[in-house]
Task: structure prediction
Amino acid sequence: MNTIDRINFLRSRRQFFGRAATGLGAAALASLLQRDAIAASGGMLSNFHVAPKAKRAIWLFMSGAPSQLDMWDYKPQMQERFDEDLPDSVRNGQRLTGMTARQKRFPVAPTKYEFHRHGQSGIHVSEVLPYTAKMIDDIAVVKSLNTEAINHDPAITYIQTGNQVPGLPCLGSWLSYGLGSTNENLPTFMVLNSTWSAKRDAQALYARLWGSGFLPSEHQGVALRSQGDPVLYLSNPPGVSGGLRRQMLNGVNAMNRRHFQRLGDPETEARISQYEMAFRMQSSVPELVDISNESDATLKMYGPDVTTPGTFAYNCLLARRMAEKNVRYTQIFHRGWDQHGNLTVDLPLQVGDIDQPCYALVQDLKQRGLLDDTLVIWAGEFGRTAYGQGRLTRENYGRDHHPRCFSGWLAGGGIKGGTTYGATDDYGYNVVENPVHIRDLNATILNQFGIDHERLSYRFQGLDQRLTGVEEARVIKDILA
Result:
């Protein structure tokens, strides 16, 4: 064996199994190849665990943690307690961030915004959400979401991947792995990052948040850009025609197939699949982002920012177009919600970005008959505190990170609209009824796709890894239609 062959021989465990002629090695390789072949042909699962209600999902993620007390969790009792110290019995020794740990006191900060009942359901919604309020009977509001993570990056990683430690597959990758693609010309999982209007820095969003972790790389998300090519290197270089590109790919694929036959690494087949998808995307992606055929009525519904690439409104319209093309999972990120101070200036700017487009997306899906089997989710990584941070007045204040309770909503895909679930105490500080851990949220999302979260797993490092981990998780059945 020469040096190069020896390096290849030792490179990975799978390659070792591939060279084993008999016994455990051959059996393990057969298992691996069968699993990857199933995944490549349409998903690891051969049958649904429960009857599916959703075929696709759109996750509207508010990165930075929007204030539930100023948007969703109506607490009129707090108005009479303005600037009083939050009782120690309420905080109950909660872990604090470094930003408020040295505060001498924790003054109660009631919202400055009015709440009103809306729809036939009569659910309270803040005045900052006039468009969302109009569709309250289409959505289920969960007021008792909770998590252990108290800082942004671990919390975002946790809700996206099921663990605070980076490097695991995200929800979109799990869906791609379990169910495969329903569109041959677009990726199963697509990501859209939005601009934001609050004039503040925002937490970075790393590509690992839409990464496939230990799953085959074909299941990672593909992020679209708002400038230049929607996907890097989508266009052919000058002087390279489509025919020449096809000829080049044929040659590369032939070499990769020989490499696979020699070494048996399933990632080689994933690479071939990705090259072929990239070639098809050269025509499908430009068509996807061309909104010139949208009606004036549709554009008006999404609001004035809809024609500006990169805005949340534009991305919501693209998400609807992706749903039409049966993209399995679309993730839209909107940053800038980290309002430690000046909340009443920044919050209206942020809500101005997302309120009308969220309404338009749900209504657009509904009008086109897509909402019934498209699950829409809206939430951030945690909530914000009932006590003020920094200078406190009736008209302006800030709020720190608060993982003990926060609010989000779901619509479509078998969700019962016009419902609320969970409740918090008079300060909106602790869950007092029907807690929903983020594991429960992910278990519920998988359930709507026909997946039992305990039965979708991937063998890695000697363990059967799952999105919801090994701790208990439950489906929130009370919000299901």
Notes: The chain is about 35% helix and 15% strand. The chain has a mean pLDDT of 88.
